[in-house]
Amino acid sequence: MAGFDYDLFVIGAGSGGVRASRIAASHGAKVAVAEEFRVGGTCVIRGCVPKKLLVYASHFAHSLHDAPTYGWTIEGQSFDWAKLRDFVASDVDRLERAYTSTLDSNKVEHFHERATVAGPNTVRLASGREISAKVILIAVGAWPVLPDFAGVEHCITSNEVFNLPELPKRVVIQGAGYIALEFAGVFNALGSQVTVVNRSDKILRGYDHDLTDRLLPILQARGIEFGFNRPIRAVEKQADGSLLVHGGEGEPIVADVVLVATGRRPKTDGLGLENVGIALGRNGEVPVDAYNQSACPSIYAVGDVTDRVQLTPVAIREGHAFADTVFGAMPRTTAYDHIPSAVFTQPPIAAVGLTEAEARANYREIKVFKSDFRPMQNMFSDVAERGYYKLVVDGATDRVLGVHMLSPDAPEILQAAAIAVKAGLTKAQFDATVALHPSMAEELVLMR
């Protein structure tokens, strides 16, 4: 190690940092990782995993509503927020232990304190100890952005939502991205009155407009209110503890909880990167090359802190590729095309590849195939929600460029479709595949 304490020191024990640590150690490197909060990072501790558990729990509200049509009589229905909250917290504890065990089993030393960069090969722990490393990896993730308005201190972010002492009766959510709409669906299903306010009149930027145009009225029909072109200007705390939300035209909105979900920013403040000549990007990100190397040759970065694609599976891929490249003598990069994504709204949407608008901007001729259907499971509901699938196809080669889905279980179905898009399969090959009947997935091979 030429006098270094470690071959690799990782700052941040989230999904990307843990994967990089484990793989580097498997290649024979001596590795340490520092985490100032909890091992597991945003996704495991305060992000996609606990949020998905809340989504699953909220689905029971719809199932119970439809139960009589299925022939079930369920008496004495009630919901206990504290029980759900505590169960989710216990599962987060379980996952943290699993991630910590992964580090231990791979002989990765971990420090439960904040670490910053003190030099090209030096990190400084919050305790004051300085540690040297041949290579430093930044994997600190991102952090919720709070707008600047009066009373913002009365608001919460997605970080705090899992620890609410009780289920709020009235919730105002600012933002119309995936975090905002997923929590809107959860609170709405659990019985809260939900109002979503947004600075524009669009939801889920980046997704195909056909999907979002169909999703919005479904959410409204479920009881979620939307205030477009109405960003929050101020929040006042009232004598009874409630919050008065001022935004745009109209009367103020009374709420018990105001959740701000207006985006996430790389968590690089105070990290000390200026000590090694790394100039941060416009959003505070660490600029890196295709091999995750920064402007300082001994310092690399992966995951949300690079602000390339803020998705947990991407961070994991980047961490693995980094470790193989630097410590395994197997140079690898991460491909950012054909990344599937989903929004766990109710119902959810899922997509991979180009939207119709993107395809029209990049290809001379495209063909679009659509399926508008009522899912069989919705026949038991008194709400006539419809599913919608869409294939975007290159007119010259017949290659499927994008798959876009709005339906129950769309994310579970999309993964297989993403393999097909990644492999460059054609519409004819989709059509040649025998349908699996009766299922929603069969719509993917029946569009003509």
Describe this structure in words.
The protein is α/β, with parallel strands linked by helices and 448 residues long. It has 3 domains: 6-144 and 265-327, FAD/NAD(P)-binding domain (3-Layer(bba) Sandwich), CATH 3.50.50.60; 152-262, FAD/NAD(P)-binding domain (3-Layer(bba) Sandwich), CATH 3.50.50; 341-445, FAD/NAD-linked reductase, C-terminal dimerisation domain (Enolase-like, domain 1, 2-Layer Sandwich). The protein has helices at 15-26, 41-46, 48-70, 81-105, 178-190, 209-221, 312-327, 356-362, 410-422, 427-431; strands spanning 6-11, 31-34, 109-111, 115-119, 122-125, 130-138, 142-144, 170-174, 193-197, 225-227, 234-237, 243-246, 253-255, 257-260, 264-266, 299-301, 341-343, 349-353, 366-373, 387-394, 400-406. Strands 1, 2, 3, 4, 5, 6 and 16 form a 7-stranded mixed beta sheet that branches. Strand 8 (170-174), helix 5 and strand 9 (193-197) form a beta-alpha-beta unit. The radius of gyration is 24 Å and the shape is globular. It starts with 5 loop residues before the first strand and ends in a 17-residue tail after the last helix. The relative contact order is 0.13.
Decide which structural class fits the backbone: alpha/beta
Q: What is Rg?
A: 24 Å
**Oligomeric state:** single chain
Global outline: globular
Number of strands: 21
Mean pLDDT comes to 95
**Largest sheet, strands/sense/barrel:** 7 strands, mixed
Give the number of helices: 10
Please give the CATH architecture of the largest domain. 3-Layer(bba) Sandwich
Query: What is the helical fraction, as a range of percent?
Result: 25-40%
Highest-level CATH class of the largest domain: Alpha Beta
Percent strand: 15-25%
The total number of structural domains is 3
CATH superfamily of the largest domain: FAD/NAD(P)-binding domain
CATH-defined topology of the largest domain:
FAD/NAD(P)-binding domain
